[in-house]
């Protein structure tokens, strides 16, 4: 079996409508598609009101899900703001003020060819056999009535009218008796079944049911409020508070605090897609910035720019974890640079 490469016609598209009226078609190969202003997104929307990492599309075999990544100007589906919603082909998606359309693959829109009509049955070239003389004569013989069949017997008339009246009277009496017996069986209860509350002869009365004493109030122990598990609504509310707090830290540049807030969200709700995406992107951004500031500090120290080296190392310490092996080197470098400045 040979591999078949999918063409653009076999892929769904996200059509982005630019402010100048032009449209940009982005074929989507499936999986997870991030959308935003940052160049690292799968689909880049260069608009100042679109967040760096605005939203993402999740494609599976049976559904398409649009997830808002905590954007400042929100995500909309058919004009309604959403945080996470199922979408379908033909829906209008909007990221801040940028409108888009999700289109199905062109291969799904091609009309199917009609099936060819079945071939007409061929006429038989063999003529049907001619009926025999005996078969032709048989219906005629059956249709001809005999003299006995052509004459109907005269109705039998009762000779004595009194006998007829007696028979009819006896029949009416028998029907009346049968109806009376039937009504008695249907309306009168059977005498074999005892009435409610009665007991049959030779049968002892059932023992009286013993009622268990009601448990006293002191026997029921209520767990204290501190040990009660939080309800689902409370957990969801707490997770949402940590997520909004992480976005606030992110806007002010406090990346480590934002990372800790998103980690708390996942401790409460491990399946939170928005927190997972935010944390993954934030971890990558923190790692890149930490590497950049550490390298800048080393270079500034080598070129005797000690104040600049101190500033770069201090920024590195705000980004890196104390478990990072470069953390101790940065602290030592700050001390050495400050000593050179004295």
Could you characterize the architecture of this molecule?
The protein has helices spanning 133-143, 147-150, 161-187, 232-251, 255-268, 273-302, 306-319, 326-341, and strands at 13-17, 23-27, 32-36, 43-44, 55-59, 64-68, 75-77, 80-82, 84-87, 92-95, 98-103. It has 342 residues and is α+β, with helices and mostly antiparallel strands. The strands form two sheets. The protein has a six-stranded antiparallel β-sheet, with no helix packed on it. Strands 4-3-5-6-9 form a five-stranded mixed β-sheet, with no helix packed on it. A hairpin with a 2-residue loop joins strand 7 (75-77) and strand 8. Helix 4 runs antiparallel to helix 5 (255-268), helix 5 (255-268) packs antiparallel against helix 6 and helix 6 packs antiparallel against helix 7. The longest helix is centred in the C-terminal third of the chain and has 30 residues, at 273-302. The chain starts with 12 loop residues before the first strand and ends with a helix.
Note the main attributes of this structure:
single chain, about 350 residues, alpha+beta, five-stranded mixed sheet, 8 helices
Secondary structure layout:
Layout: E1 13-17, E2 23-27, E3 32-36, E4 43-44, E5 55-59, E6 64-68, E7 75-77, E8 80-82, E9 84-87, E10 92-95, E11 98-103, H1 133-143, H2 147-150, H3 161-187, H4 232-251, H5 255-268, H6 273-302, H7 306-319, H8 326-341
Parallel strand pairs: 3-4
Antiparallel strand pairs: 1-2, 1-11, 3-5, 5-6, 6-9, 7-8, 7-10, 10-11
Helix pairs in contact: 4-5, 5-6, 6-7, 7-8
């Amino acid at each position: 079996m040979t591999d078949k490469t999918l063409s653009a016609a076999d892929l769904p598209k996200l059509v982005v409508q630019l402010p100048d009226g032009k449209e940009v078609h982005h074929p989507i190969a499936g999986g997870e598609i991030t959308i935003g202003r940052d160049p690292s997104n799968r689909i880049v929307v260069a608009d100042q009101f679109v967040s760096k990492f605005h939203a993402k599309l999740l494609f599976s075999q049976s559904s398409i899900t649009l997830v808002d990544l905590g954007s400042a100007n929100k995500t909309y589906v058919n004009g309604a703001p959403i945080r996470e919603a199922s979408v379908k082909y033909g829906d209008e998606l909007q990221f801040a003020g940028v409108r888009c359309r999700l289109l199905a693959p062109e291969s799904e829109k091609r009309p199917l060819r009609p099936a060819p009509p079945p071939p007409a049955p061929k006429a038989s070239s063999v003529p049907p056999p001619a009926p025999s003389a005996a078969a032709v004569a048989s219906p005629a013989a059956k249709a001809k009535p005999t003299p006995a069949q052509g004459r109907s017997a005269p109705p039998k008339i009762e000779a004595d009218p009194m006998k007829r009246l007696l028979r009819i009277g006896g029949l009416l009496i028998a029907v009346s008796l049968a109806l009376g017996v039937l009504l008695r069986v249907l309306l009168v209860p059977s005498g074999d079944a005892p009435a409610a509350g009665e007991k049959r002869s030779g049968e002892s009365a059932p023992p009286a049911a013993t009622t268990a004493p009601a448990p006293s109030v002191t026997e029921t122990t209520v767990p204290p409020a501190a040990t009660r598990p939080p309800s689902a609504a409370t957990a969801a509310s707490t997770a949402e508070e940590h997520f909004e707090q992480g976005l606030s830290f992110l806007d002010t540049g406090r990346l480590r605090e934002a990372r800790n807030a998103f980690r708390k969200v996942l401790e409460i709700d491990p399946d939170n897609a928005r927190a997972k995406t935010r944390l993954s992107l934030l971890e990558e951004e923190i790692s890149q910035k930490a590497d950049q500031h550490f390298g800048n500090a080393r270079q500034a120290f080598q070129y005797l720019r000690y104040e600049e080296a101190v500033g770069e190392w201090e920024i590195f310490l705000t980004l890196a974890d104390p478990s990072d092996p470069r953390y101790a080197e940065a602290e030592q470098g700050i001390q050495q640079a400050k000593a050179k400045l004295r």
